[in-house]
Specification:
Layout: E1 2-3, E2 6-7, E3 17-21, E4 24-27, E5 32-35, H1 38-41, H2 50-62, H3 73-86, E6 90-94, H4 97-114, E7 122-126, H5 135-140, H6 144-147, E8 157-160, H7 165-171, E9 176-181, E10 184-185, E11 191-192, H8 195-206, E12 210-214, H9 228-231, E13 238-241, E14 252-256, H10 258-262, H11 277-290, H12 293-319, E15 324-330, E16 333-338, H13 342-351, E17 354-355, E18 357-359, E19 363-366, H14 374-387
Parallel strand pairs: 5-17, 7-8, 7-9, 9-12, 12-13
Antiparallel strand pairs: 1-2, 3-4, 4-5, 6-14, 10-11, 13-14, 15-16, 16-19, 18-19
Helix pairs in contact: 2-11, 3-11, 12-14, 13-14
Bound molecules: pyridoxal-5'-phosphate (PLP).
């Protein structure tokens, strides 16, 4: 089905965006909204942050595209910044999250081919996970609603129930190359990966299985630390990033450890647009702000305040007989279980001047910009209070 010549895969859209500034977005009718969707966890510094606009302008005035045949200074600088922040050895830049995961699967399999163990080719993932819409990423995505109707899917992907330690242990065998995990399964319902599963992941990593952290939604401080894996005590072998990485422009990345990097040589992978200089310049500007320790401290205080107030609101409403809670996620990746119609709740919030997202069928998802102010947080809480009244 199509809608105004756009393929109907996104359903109907009834809000036309005119402009955005900071934490706010305006529609073409002049209504202003506090944007707690942030382009689905992309706009870490809100809309049109001046540092991002300036970086984009400066790079476009120099050159926009030249290809990966040449050294691209903004790409080189972003790779260095990511290596410095993560301790990883090498970065491959893609255009999107799904494409970053495709790269990670290729690198993991190739590592075992180069090591003389080509039979180790299976990738294990969790139910409720979301890893993207391309074929391998879709095969790894543990949700039938994403996978059904597009078969045959590529072989070599195994899904186990999320937070089931015994199930995970059972799925690991001589054919396993890697386990891909999200520390918070964001699209699949803002489900927190349990510390017990983190323990099993460390155990299987010690047996030689590679860990791929899909930090596309959880990474780059959305959950309070550079990578959410840090919070679970996990040191993955490969990390995929995207969403805020390009400052609102398309950009993804795979961070790889030295042993994976050593298995890859010229010609093994590539992309025409991956690591585009403008996206990299924008991303570097965002990372410079986000990686400032004073910013991180303040951000974590603001997210803790929001979570504390939301928790109090949930408890009050639940005590009054409303089917709400618990709250899940970490930092500014917030899920609130909702017993009613979550789309109706989103509409109520929109009427109160707040854009909120959902995850799965019954979770309201809040993804404010990481620089949302205390005043704006109070505005969000007021809107939540009124929407739940
Ligand atoms: C955890 C995770 N992985 C992968 C993806 C896919 O990223 P993209 O839409 O950029 O392909 C998403 C997107 O929502 C995601 O949240």
């Amino acid at each position: 089905m199509q809608n105004n010549h756009l393929l109907g895969v996104y359903g109907s859209r009834d809000l036309t965006i005119a402009r955005g500034q900071g934490s706010y977005i305006w529609d073409t009718e002049g209504h202003r909204y506090l944007d707690c969707v942030s382009g689905v966890a992309v706009n870490a510094l809100g809309h049109s942050a001046s540092v991002v606009v300036d970086a984009i302008r400066a790079q476009t005035e120099q050159f926009i595209h030249a290809s990966n045949l040449y050294v691209l200074p903004s790409q080189k600088a972003l790779a260095e910044k990511l290596a410095e922040l993560s301790g990883f050895d090498a970065v491959f830049f893609s255009n999107s999250g799904a494409e970053a995961n495709e790269g990670a699967f290729k690198f993991a399999r190739h590592y075992f081919v180069a090591a003389g163990n080509p039979e180790r080719c299976e990738v294990v993932s969790f139910t409720n996970s979301f890893h993207g819409r391309t074929y391998a990423a879709m095969a790894a995505t543990g949700q039938d609603k994403i996978r059904l109707g597009f078969g045959p899917l590529p072989p070599g992907f195994v899904t186990v129930p999320v937070n089931d330690a015994a199930g995970l242990r059972k799925a690991i065998g001589p054919k396993t190359a890697a386990v891909i995990y999200e520390c918070v399964l964001a699209e699949g319902g803002v489900i927190d990966l349990s510390p017990e599963i983190a323990e099993v992941l460390r155990e299987v990593q010690a047996q030689g299985v590679l860990l791929i952290a899909d930090e596309i939604q959880t990474g780059l401080w959305r959950t309070g630390t550079f990578l959410a894996s840090e919070g679970l005590g996990l040191k993955p072998d490969l990390v995929t990033l995207a969403k805020p990485l390009g400052g609102g422009l398309p950009l993804g990345a795979v961070l790889v450890s030295a042993k994976i990097a050593a298995a890859l040589k010229a010609g093994d992978h590539g992309s025409t647009f991956g690591g585009n200089p403008v996206s990299c310049a924008a991303g570097l500007a965002v990372l410079k702000v986000l990686s400032d320790p004073a910013f991180i401290k303040d951000m974590n205080e603001r997210s803790a305040f929001l979570r504390k107030e939301l928790q109090a609101l949930i408890e009050t409403k639940a005590a009054a007989g409303i089917n709400i809670g618990p709250m899940s996620g970490k930092g500014f990746l917030i899920g609130i279980q909702w017993g009613g119609d979550v789309i109706a709740l989103q509409k109520k919030l929109r009427d109160e001047g707040v854009l909120a997202h959902r995850a799965g069928a019954s979770v309201l998802r809040l993804l404010p910009p990481l620089n949302i102010s205390r005043e704006e947080i109070k505005e969000l809480l007021g809107a939540m209070e009124r929407a739940l009244a």
